[in-house]
Amino acid sequence: MSSTLTDRLPTQADPALAPTPASSPDTALRYQHGFGNEYASEAVPGALPQGRNSPQRAPFDLYPELISGTAFTAPRHTNRRSWLYRRQPSVVSGRYQPYAQPFWTTGVDRAMAVPPEPLRWAPIAFDASSAEADFVDGMHTLAANGDAETQVGVAAHMYLATRSMDRRAFVNADGEMLLVPQQGRLRITTEMGVLEVKPGEIALLPRGVAFKVALPDGPSRGYVCENYGAQFRLPELGPIGSNGLANARDFLAPVAAYEEGEGAYEVVKKFGGRFWHAPMKQSPFNVVAWHGNLAPVKYDTVNFMTIGSISFDHPDPSIFTVLTSPSDTPGVANCDFVIFPPRWLVMEDTFRPPWYHRNLMSEFMGLVYGEYDAKPGGFKPGGASLHNPMVPHGPDEEAFEKASHGELQPRKLDNTLAFMFESRFRFVPTPYAMQNPALDEAYADCWAGLKDQFKP
Ligand SMILES: O=C(O)Cc1cc(O)ccc1O
Ligand SMILES: [Fe+2]
């Protein structure tokens, strides 16, 4: 059944709308700028009520529906909600039945014995479980912590998707989803409109907002942070000042777009760690206008204003934080999303790669493209590494040798994008991850040759 999206030009009711930056590849798509703004968008002029949210009858007899991503009483600076004006409310649905998705797990698995040593995976391959899988069925949890019931922790997943979702939608009631594509673009249709992301860009999809994913480039792979905790937000900038790192204006939210075309939908819902599905007679992408500050957004990491040392020493990687999900303890994140983008290294008399270290925080890392300076050989795009609390790690032998003896000219680390999901909670790898042929049994050998070179 074919369907088209009505994506008419924005109207006066779109004050936040500005042209998409020239760097964007999305010629057909339009976006609104900003992070956590009061966005407003109409696919049909006049569809947004003015001056109130729920008039006795909304324009064009649309149904107003409020989606609250935070408690009604959350402090104003964290409060997120949007008003959707739709052809039918979301509650119009068939009955839910259990749905099988065995590779997508939720929260800490206390029965799992986690080795207290560094773990690393080669690129996770498309295997039998991902043949003929869409974004939902192709999701594979590599590691998770916390508990969706108590709204604590995150999971690190890898999607291995070969099929677009057609008349199938997904709703995650357990957490928001931060998508980090590694191979192939994703065209993400959401209740609030359509976003397209390519490797190097990220998408942040709010908890509870229905979406579906099409794959314009065919088989697609990438990483997902499913966040059961407080919503990701921009970090405080402290002495950095009022500009820098990820600037709010570079985040892009979609404009309202509703789907036309006939045919039933299947809605798959993740709810309390279990999966359910229900038939729907209508498309859930039936929102004609919306306003509010809860919205899916995308962000191109080329816009990250990277700050580093211009004197000496290697700074803590918190300087590369794009988004943070705080926990109840100040400064100790439920999860930080940190990137290692192209940048200049200019430090004098400094061992420039990461130091050898142990950390209270747990570090799940992935590589979108290029080489990571601490592991030039062994860490590959599409792979992953996991350094849990107090697990020692650092540059491999090759990186140590080069960085200890190389000439300290200014040097550009170019064509590289690694990232880290850093959490206060230990990541527990899944059986899928621990039994995966990509698990690098020889990871520890990359440090084995580091000799005692003490010369008193
Ligand atoms: O371990 C890693 O590779 C991530 C990391 C990078 C860095 O520059 C400093 C600390 C750190 O944990
Ligand atoms: Fe580290």
From TrEMBL:
Pfam families: HgmA_C, HgmA_N
Binding site for homogentisate: 372, 393
EC number in record: 1.13.11.5
Entry-linked InterPro entries: HgmA_C (IPR046451), HgmA_N (IPR046452), Homogentis_dOase (IPR005708), RmlC-like_jellyroll (IPR014710), RmlC_Cupin_sf (IPR011051)
Co-factor(s): Fe cation
NCBIfam families hit by this protein: hmgA
Family per record: Belongs to the homogentisate dioxygenase family.
The name this protein goes by in its record: Homogentisate 1,2-dioxygenase
